[in-house]
Amino acid sequence: MSKQKTAVITGAGQGIGKGIAKRLADDGFAVVLSDINEEVLNSTIDEFKEQNIRVASFVGNVANPEDQKALVRTAVDHFGSVDVFINNAGIEQVSPILDIQPSDLEKLFQVNVFGVVYGIQAAAEQMKKQENGGKIINACSIAGHQSFTMLGAYCATKFAVRSLTQTAAQELAKYKITVNAYCPGIVGTSMWDRIDTAMVKYMGLQKGEAFKKFAEGIALGRTQEPEDVAKFVSYLASSDSDYMTGQSVIIDGGIVFN
Ligand code: NAD
Q1: What H or E segment, with its residue span, contains residue 234?
Q2: What is the Å distance from ligand 1's center to 111 Cα?
Q3: Has residue 1 got a pLDDT over 70?
């Protein structure tokens, strides 16, 4: 890389976002990590600094458009540009459709859908100013291609992310901004710990059994690590993906086949 590029990653305090941030730092990016959870964010920032990674941090809520703008400003203030913006932050909700509560639905859509819109807007405004294109990358899921029982509202938010990825790609192509999404399968993060805890309650199973049950259907025979996702996001963030836009690509070890 001639001039060091900057990648911003939301929900990067732990899990998939942290894995992506580490991989992009290894690829040569300066990285800006954001999370609503200050504690996990600070601990990851300390870890990255110990590894001499060029990193900045921002505590914020993706569902707040002002926070998204401030995140972009933080990146520009520290490193001069935003070249890659990853809308990774997301939350889950487990419930049969008949039990979904309005407050859960609102929170889920605010973070997973509104948050992605505000992230795309904040990133694209900056990238347009830079006149050098850019890459916006969204966290979708296999749940954005196929719906699963007890995850109805979550799946609806991920279908929405796939839709937003397609529209943003078409509208932003004239600025040489590409918009794509990664669609993981079953990644052993704190999100899946919570999904498992909620599901086993409904299904009358023991802790860990819902995760195991889902994992049994994976063709490649193992659940996913954040690094498996990060390897693909590394491609999406690189110039190798310059001719690709509007796609939400499944990387799940073989669960959903499209
Ligand atoms: P995680 O819960 O382990 O980590 C998510 C991080 O996002 C947390 O640090 C959390 O504090 C942060 N966050 C939550 N709400 C936020 C908000 N409003 N603003 C800013 N940060 C916020 O989750 P994960 O498993 O790493 O998932 C990351 C993304 O990947 C999510 O969008 C998720 O839907 C998607 N995904 C996960 C899986 C999986 O199996 N874990 C599969 C497919 C897609």
Answers
A1: helix 226-237
A2: 10
A3: no
CB 8 within 8 A of CB 23: no
For the cut 80, the answer to whether the pLDDT of residue 236 exceeds it is yes
CB 9 within 8 A of CB 34: yes
Could you tell me the CA-to-CA distances from 111 to 60, 115, 151 in Å, in that order? 12, 5, 16
**Given this model, what pLDDT does residue 2 score?**
64
How far, in Å, are 35, 147, 206, 211, 230 from residue 214 at the CA level? 28, 14, 14, 5, 21
* Cα–ligand 1 centroid distance for 2 (angstroms): 32
Is any ligand 1 atom within 6 A of the Cβ of residue 157? no
Name the 3-class secondary structure at 184.
Answer: strand
Ligand 1 lined by 139 (C-beta under 6 Å):
yes
Q: Please provide residue 111's backbone torsions phi and psi, each rounded to the nearest 5 degrees.
A: -80, -55
State the Cα–Cα distance between residues 219 and 237, nearest whole angstrom. Answer: 27
In whole angstroms, give the CA distance from residue 236 to residue 136: 9
- What is the average pLDDT score of the chain? 97
Asked whether 70 and 116 are in contact (CB, 8 A), the reply is no
Crossing angle (nearest 10°) for helices 152-172 and 102-109:
30
AA letter at 224: Q
What is the C-alpha separation between 45 and 51, in angstroms, rounded?
10
Ligand 1 neighbour 29 (Cβ under 6 A):
no
5, 18, 135, 158: the catalytic one is 158
- 189, 233, 255: residue to mutate for ligand 1 pocket, most atoms within 8 A of CB: 189
End-to-end CA distance of the chain: 35
45 near 33, Cβ under 8 Å? Answer: yes
